[in-house]
Structure formats: C-alpha cells, structure tokens
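Fold this complex.
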Amino acid sequence: MTEELTDLRVAVVGVGMMGADHVRRLQTRTAGARTVVVADAFPATAEKVAAAWPGVRVATDPLAAIADDEVDAVVIATPGNTHEELVSACLERGKPVLCEKPLTTDVESSLRLVEAERATGRRLIQVGFMRRFDPEYAALRSLVESDDLGRPLMMHCAHRNASVPPYFTSEMVVLDSLVHEVDCTRFLLGEEITAITVLHPRSRRDVPDGLSDPTFALLETESGALVDVEVNVATGLGYEVRTELVAERGTAMIGLEGGPVVARGGAGSASRGRSVPPSFKERFKAAYDLEFQAWADAARRGTATGPTAWDGYAATAVTTAGVEALRSGQRTEVRLAARS
Amino acid sequence: MTEELTDLRVAVVGVGMMGADHVRRLQTRTAGARTVVVADAFPATAEKVAAAWPGVRVATDPLAAIADDEVDAVVIATPGNTHEELVSACLERGKPVLCEKPLTTDVESSLRLVEAERATGRRLIQVGFMRRFDPEYAALRSLVESDDLGRPLMMHCAHRNASVPPYFTSEMVVLDSLVHEVDCTRFLLGEEITAITVLHPRSRRDVPDGLSDPTFALLETESGALVDVEVNVATGLGYEVRTELVAERGTAMIGLEGGPVVARGGAGSASRGRSVPPSFKERFKAAYDLEFQAWADAARRGTATGPTAWDGYAATAVTTAGVEALRSGQRTEVRLAARS
Amino acid sequence: MTEELTDLRVAVVGVGMMGADHVRRLQTRTAGARTVVVADAFPATAEKVAAAWPGVRVATDPLAAIADDEVDAVVIATPGNTHEELVSACLERGKPVLCEKPLTTDVESSLRLVEAERATGRRLIQVGFMRRFDPEYAALRSLVESDDLGRPLMMHCAHRNASVPPYFTSEMVVLDSLVHEVDCTRFLLGEEITAITVLHPRSRRDVPDGLSDPTFALLETESGALVDVEVNVATGLGYEVRTELVAERGTAMIGLEGGPVVARGGAGSASRGRSVPPSFKERFKAAYDLEFQAWADAARRGTATGPTAWDGYAATAVTTAGVEALRSGQRTEVRLAARS
Amino acid sequence: MTEELTDLRVAVVGVGMMGADHVRRLQTRTAGARTVVVADAFPATAEKVAAAWPGVRVATDPLAAIADDEVDAVVIATPGNTHEELVSACLERGKPVLCEKPLTTDVESSLRLVEAERATGRRLIQVGFMRRFDPEYAALRSLVESDDLGRPLMMHCAHRNASVPPYFTSEMVVLDSLVHEVDCTRFLLGEEITAITVLHPRSRRDVPDGLSDPTFALLETESGALVDVEVNVATGLGYEVRTELVAERGTAMIGLEGGPVVARGGAGSASRGRSVPPSFKERFKAAYDLEFQAWADAARRGTATGPTAWDGYAATAVTTAGVEALRSGQRTEVRLAARS
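Structure:
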C-alpha cells in the first residue's frame, strides 16, 4: 500500500450550515479524503456534527484542530473576521487549507496572508470561489483562453437571489454577492479589475431598511474591458446567474440552463420553460463537489489549486473599493499591491 | 362604393435604398395604399423607381410631390437634415406623414415640428421607429403595461451590427444606432430618459479611424430605472438585438429567436443553434410591413399612429446629450421642454 | 393608371368565423385586393359581415357571387362537402380561387377538380394550407431544397391543440388535424406519401366519446423516409406545432419559438420560459396574411400559387387511407392516380 | 475508527477502455472506495492499468479477483458473454457487483441471475445503466413520479451517435444503442414494455454493410403508452440524446442542453448555439461519477442500488424481441417471466 493511497485527514473548522455540508461532502463525495476533527465556536454544534459521522472527533478549539497531529489539511468555514488567524495557523504548520470566501475582511490582512504563504515557499491556500469549478464557467474560461472569439471587450453579468435575511444591507450586497462576480470577472478575463462604480436604480419595495435592490456595478479591467453587473438579492423567484462575454469575434453566454423543459397550463395561460433553481446550493452542487475533489487531490500532494491567496486579496480589494463607490456614488479606482 | 375604400395615394420623398423599399412595400404589402408620386434629389433615381411600378409618376422636387393634389399622404426617407422643411410642408397641407428617423437632426427643429403639428389641431406625424411594431417588442410593452411583473427597475439592451461603412464614427453610433435603444427604452418603460452616460471599453481592432467599438451607454429614467446598453457595430457576425427587462416580480427577455434550430458538424466540432440574421432588414421585415399598414390605416382616416413627433423630439434630445456625454466621458442630463 | 394597379375584386363565399376573418384580412391586410361580395348559407351572417365593411355587397347565393361580373376572384370558406361544386363554378368562369382545406372530402371529387383545372389550361386553384407560408416552415423547406443537410431520412412532428368541440371524433383528428402534417410532410420533403399507419396509445381521460387522444401516425414516403406524428387535440394547454427533420448530415427543428422569455415565481416554484399561444390563429397569424397576399398577387395576374389542386387531392388521398388505417389498426398503402 | 469509514476494496474485472476508466473513477472520484485488484483476459492490459495506480494488484484471472479475500465488491466491464459466470461468482461469495450492461446476452441467463440473486436473500447486483443517474433523466423521473403532469401517454426519444466501428450491424444498433432507450423507457415510465416494432427508413449512404441507419423503433408499454425512438449511429456530428414525455396535463423534454451559447461568424453565415458533445463520455461524465458513488455507498452497506438484475433481464428481453422485430419487420410481443 503506497503513501498516495492514504486518505487525506481533514479538520473542518466552523461547522454551521456551510461547514456541516462540507463535512458531508468530504465523507460521501470526495475520493481520498475524510474528516477526522471538527471544531466550532459553539461546542454543541461541533458535537452534533461529529455524532452524525463515525470516526469524527471534536477539537476543543479551532487552533487545536489545526495543530492536531492526525490532521493533514484544513477546511475553514468560520466567519470572515477569524480567517486571518486560522489561515495563518495552517501556514505555520505547513498544512493545505481550503478557506471559504472572503479570504479576510480587509485588504491589509489579505495581503499579509499572501506574503505569509509566499514565505513558506509553497502554495498552501485555496479560496472557496466555487464557481471556478462549475462546468459552465470552466467552459467559458476555456473559450477565452482558446482565443477562439478573440479579445474580450465587454461582459454582462446578472446575479439573482430569491431572498436575503432581514439584516442584509447594500454593503453586504457588495461584499457577499457582488464578490462572486468580481472573482468571475478576474477568472474569466484573466486580468485585474482597476475601477468600480456602484449605482442603484429605484429599489423594489418591501426590502429591509438599509437595502436598495437591485444594484448595478460597472467594473473596468486592466486591458480596458467593461463589465456591467446586475445584482438582485430579493427577486422572490429563485437563483439565477448569467454571464455573457462580448469578444472581438463573437459572444458567449452561460447560465440559461436548467432541467426539463416543461409545458403546462396555468391560470389563463400556458407556458413552456424551465424551473429556476431555488438557491445557489442546487445551482452549484456539482461545482462544490468538484472544488472539494480538486482541493483534496492537491492537498494529498501537499499543495493547493484553484483560487489563490492573491485571488482572495484582489477580490477583497475590489469589494472594499466597491463599498467606497457605493457610498460616494463615484467611480472608484482599485489599487493593488505590487505583485512581487 | 364608399370613401373609405378609396386607396390612400402616397408620395414617397427620397427613394434611395430605404425609400425604394418603402415604395415596394406600399405597392405589394400595404392594404389600402399605393404610391402615386416619387421624388428624389437625384432625378435619375426617381425615374428608375417610377419605371419599376406602373402608375407611379416622378415629381420635379420633393415639395412639389408633397403639394401634389393627387397625393393624400407622404413618406419621407431623405437625409435627416431635410426633414424639418419636408415635414413642415406636410403639416401646412394637412397631410399625414411617415418620417424616417431621426425626426430632425437637432433638438430645436424637432421641437418646432412638435409645436407646428400641435398648431394644426391634429395628429399628422408618425416617426419611423419601426421596432415598436415588431411583435416581440410589442409583446414586451404589453407585459409592462399589464403590470404582471410589477414595476420596471432595470433593463439590459444589446444591439449588434455586422459592419458599418468606413466613414462611420463613434458619434454616428450614438445618433444612428443607440437612438433605437433610446426609443425602445422610452416605449417599453413608458417614461422619459433623464440622463445618459456613454463609455468605451477597449475597441476591437480593424475599425475605421474615429470609431471605437463597442460602445456602452447607461440611461436613467424619470422613475429611476437604469438601462445599460451595449452597441456593437462591427461584429462581423450579423444583426442581433436583445432586451431584458428586470422588474419587481420577474424578468422578461426578447431577441433570442430565429429560424430553425440546426445541428450540423464542422471543422472539428458539431453545434446546434440558429442562424443570426445578416441585417436589420431580415430581422425587422415584418415590423416594417406592420408599421406601414398601421400608418396607412391611420392616414386614410386623416391622422397618424405609433411614434409621435414628441417621441422624435425626445429621442433627438437624448442622443444630443449622448454625443455630449461621449465627448466628456461624463454623465449628462437630458433636459426636455415642458410638455404643454 | 395601368391595369396592374386595379384592385382585385374578391367574392368571399362562406363568412362564418373563418370566412369573416378572411374578409377582414382582405380589407385591411392585403395589398391590391378587396372584398366586393359575400355570400353565406345563412343570409343573416352574410348581411352582418357586409354591414361591417363599406363597399361590400351580399349575393343571393354562392353561385351568384362567383358568377358576379364585378368579381375577379373567389375565396371559399364553406364546409368541405360544398367545395367541389363551388370550385368547379370558379373554374368554369376562369376565376382564380383560394379554397380552404380540404379541397374536397373524398378522393374522387378532388381528382375531378385536378382534371377540370387542367382542362382550363391554366393554374386557378390554391388550397388553403397556410403553413407553407409560415416563415419557419418556409425556412425549413428552403433548407431541404438547399441540400445543405443532405437527404431527408426521418421527420418528427408534433401537433397539439388545447381543446376540441364535444362532437370531435378520432376520424376528425385524421381529417382535420393530421391533414396539416400530411401536407407539411409533402411540402417539406417534396415527395408523395406512400403508406400510413395510425395507432392510439391509451387516451387521456375526460375526452368526448368517440375520441381517443393523443393519436400516433407513421407516414412513409416515396424515397423511403419515415415520418412519425403525434397529434394531441385536447391538451388543455395551448397550440404547439413542432417539426424536426433528420437528414444525412444534420437535423433541423422548428416550432420551439414564442414571445418573451419570462421568469416569474409561482406556487412553490419559479420558472423561466415562453407562453404557448392559445390557438392556431395566434401561431399562424402572419402565415395567413402572407398566404392571402401571395394569392392576391397571383390572382391579379390571373393565376394561382402555393398549394395546388394536386396537393389538395394528395392530402385527401392520404387522410382517406388514414381513416382506413385508423379503423384497421394496420399499415395502409396510399394509391395515387397517375400524374399525367 | 469505525467500520463504516473503511474504504470499500474493489476488484475491477475487464480493464479495457471502459474498465480502465472505471479504475480511474474509483481512485479519483469515488469517496469511500478504491480499486485493489484488476484482472483482464489480456494480462498485459491488466499490468498496465495496475502500474498506473499505486496499491493496485493484478489477479491471475477474473474469478481469482472476485474470490480474493481482500476484495469487498466487484465491477465487471468484460464482454457481455462472460457476465453470467462472473456475476454468478460474485453472488456465490455474497459480494456486491456493478455489472456493465447488458446483464447477459440472452434472456435465459439473465433470468438465471435474477433467480440466483433472489436465492441469496439480498440485493447484490447493480446493472450499469448510467443514464438513471444523469441529473436530467433523474429530474424527468421525479416529474413523472410527482404526477404533476398526469399520466404518461407517449414519449419521443432520439439517440444520435457520431460514428460506429466498421463492424457495426443493425442488430448491434438494437442490442447496444436501443437498449439504453429501452431502459430509460422502463425507468421513466415505471412499467414494462410489452411489444416492439423496428423499422428502417432509407439509410444514409456510406455506412458499413449490414448496417442501415437510422433506425426507428416503436415501444408499447403495459399501460398502453407509445414510445417512438430514433436511433442514429453514424450522424458524423456528435452525441445527442433527447426525450420528450407527453402526459395528460403537459409535456417535458430533456436533452436540449450543453455549455455556452456561442455566437460566431462562419462561411457566409453567422449562428448562435451550443456545442454538441462528441460522445457519451462527455455527455454522461457526471452520471458515471454519480453511479459509482451511489454503488460504492450501497456496497459498503453490503447491498446494491439503482438498476436491478430484473431491469437487466427485462432490457435483454426487449432487445431480444427487438432483434426478432428487426428481422421480421413485424410488431413483436415481449413476454417476460412472472415476477415472483
């Protein structure tokens, strides 16, 4: 039995709704990896998850889970403001880490992680931008890389959620929702975002105070491409994401799909069409599985793949500028550190 | 035999490519109307068109055609800088007129026509925004009017031409292409545009000097709706127009259609899809026919229907502001005259 | 004023729902033609239609309308069992006639009309298979003619109606509904049908006695192509027709289209799709207009275009065999007269 | 460490193209399972596969691999005529087995396996009809089960391959290609097939002797539903499967999908559409992964899931009748053993 066949032993730190789902994913959908330790700020939560999966222990605290000698790699699904400390602990011990987005909640700490990883001499951090593993997004990226349609000039993005919790604000739209379009833009076009403008049309009614919905953003990139983004977080409908690339020799759109095309009657009219998935979980189910498999494969080799710490830093830099743009109503430049 | 059954006798002024096609449309596709006189700045052009259709005479000049006693109504398809004089002549004689867009080339003259028509006490002017007669645009307008999807909040428009003549400039993109999206926005949303921003991403290469392509425009409306527009005039592909409405309770998209869905093989890959029509002529063939029939029906009753002189004026006001926005790179407000 | 510009003076015989709509179409949508006389088995019906349109007179009976000296051409929209007599009267007077389908209700009388027309030495009969004028069907026919996809091998057809009157029987499905797919097969493939099989799956419940719905038919053609047909006449939904050609080098499908793609919420789920038109009237509105314009253009030249008397005969021959196949449950050969 | 966490140790018997891919799938995409032994009729083939994956041994022969004490479960990907012996050996040792389709190549041996499994008192056999794990097919099955569209009445299936090897015959079309539609029909409608008719339209040219392509089949089910099937094995295009259910209260279609919708120019025309996947491997990539994960999950519990031995038997019974129908050109009844 050779070393490569040994399962990756994973600590999952933060086992709320998302983290608990990641435990399930590791145990039942990821080849060559299994959760051995879980930790959570609420011990009862950790106990409950551990009880559901034979062979999973509870660590006293997140840092103990990361330090555990029987842990080879770490998944972090705690709130963003804890990420710097936890990811740093992983780096110190040379353990590959899959950190849910955002990498951290401010530009400076993200950059510190970029530098701390570089100091280890290895790639250890993967940020949880799962869309990069979605077959449709991956196919669009391949199309751009193939240069088949020529240089990208514009991109149109729409991001629609059925609903948000009552405490959701317009800033959270930028930090939690728009951030996905920011990462997709960087991923699909393969370049940095240099400026952002955030505007609001009149809002739908019946949204929480502090929230104006939808949101319009305009992203500019290094090469001069323009990306317009619609973010709608309270449509009442379901979850839809759509991206259309406009390039020199053609266009390409993803996100029109779904399951069966059903024709049925209704109140006074008949229609033929597809169901809209209720949430990102259904839409990106396969992407999450692929993301974890790719991470586990890389972690077993002692490294990481997919979105880098720099990707996490750059996304935070753009959304930070986005919040400033939201407040000022003005085009705001994004200034990234030099990429040494 | 009653008066209503008498055919409308039409003068077509300007019989270049577009005007000649309008003559054909009147003779062969429009019930209750026929061309009796044509005029053109180039007499040989007028002679050639008249020779093709029995019963069509050539007038010595456009004003003579309009004044002709045997002419009941007028179609104007001359360059925009002649429109004020010609439309005014129609108004003076109380003759219904279908004037190709733009109504006139500047705001002041358009407003003078609005006032001159009002002074006649009748509706006589119809502006040639043919898209309003396209079944898809009409269905989207009906959907907005039904309030079925609630209040409009945003709209996404794309307008793509395969190619433009070598003398085409970025200002002409605003005046000749963007103007259609301006009118559609006003038509679909049923309100005025209050501000416009025009930006350029990096341009495709191999376009004429003075042209940057594509163009991005952002329109704001009275109610606070935001409309983003992509105009692409040299895609090398074909003609595509697409509009997606984002409203409080749903979205609606038009422009995805075409003819047969064909699957076939190709160089190394197979695909399944639809042909993109080569130009606006194929895409809006039915719309032009419907526009002319609606105009003829109204003109036989001594009046006009569809896009009004005010619609022509408002479109000119927005595109004039658009050219200013293009030059300044700044958001530019649109100031309309009071609508007395 | 030359002869060509004179409007075609039309008699419309049979002005029930369909015929009355044809009068409207002639008066308001057909260039160069106008109704001058109407006749109907119910004089009150004819009076009502005539009263709605200035300049339209009522004839004492259909034959009087056809014989009228001020009538140049005739539209027949009476029940099928009257067609032979009425079309014959048109042929005797050398008047172009647009006869609604079926040409006649039995093979022998249809063939007599084919021969009677041939004896006049002119093409005078056009049968009302309006689908041939639908832009989608026409585009599919053009594709077949272009040989771009190679030889046709199979075709899949679906024909779905929302509902039928309570007296509708399975035989009427063959005679009134399937007949359209029969004509489309002949039109699209450009060859005769040689055999027909008609089968029934279990029926939907809640249909009238004497009706089994849906119906499956299998058509075989001269060249050996196989065409399977689903006819559904009581779906409760709306009107859908779809045809997919399977050829040597590719496939082509028509009938997926509609208006705006609308996303909206609903009872527990959200969907994105298109409205299904309620009936053939909405689906083939443009086709009817194009059919009438083409007929009027030909009739003004003293002839006819589109579906011929032979097309009407061949369709009747196939549906007659179809009724036999329905009764026997067996594959039934279609035997056509020699085409002299 | 509890028992449940122990990886399932798998023998893969037959490691040609398909079996070797299954080894890769177990090693890199299936949680909780790993290949420990491979065997093949060609020892060099087995050696090559084993060399590629650390920890995989080569067994002297298939029966030795099945008997191996360190093997918990077996995947069989050898030719169909070996399946009875190999599956029987698995049953004798009480080992769960995933057997590629067909279960066996004749009705009698399939039935013997059904009975042999029953004698073990456990469910141990899963047949490799992977489509049942495809998200689209699964969604359509759920829709039928929900009764949302009412009782199924008809189904239309199309199955298109780009090409087949030169030795492919019309009988192999029935046994290797049509068998998938047979299983899908049984799966989607949840009932047995009672009769089959197989017909050929004229064939495309340039196909091997002994092959007529395409093939048309008509399946009848217990409830009286009719299923028409187009099988096209040499389209030169790519791989497409499509199924449309026609039910009492609506219709549902799967198989229209693909990746990005790309618009691009071409030789004289522009089109907008999707790529057709080159083969079943791309189309059913996710389905195979899901099939193996579901099998491994069940096998770790000592049982099986998905398509049963009876499903394998019933499919063989239908395709056996299909070959008879192909030869006779007649409707052929399918007679299944009593399901004790």
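Chain A has two domains: 3-131+287-308, 134-284+316-333.
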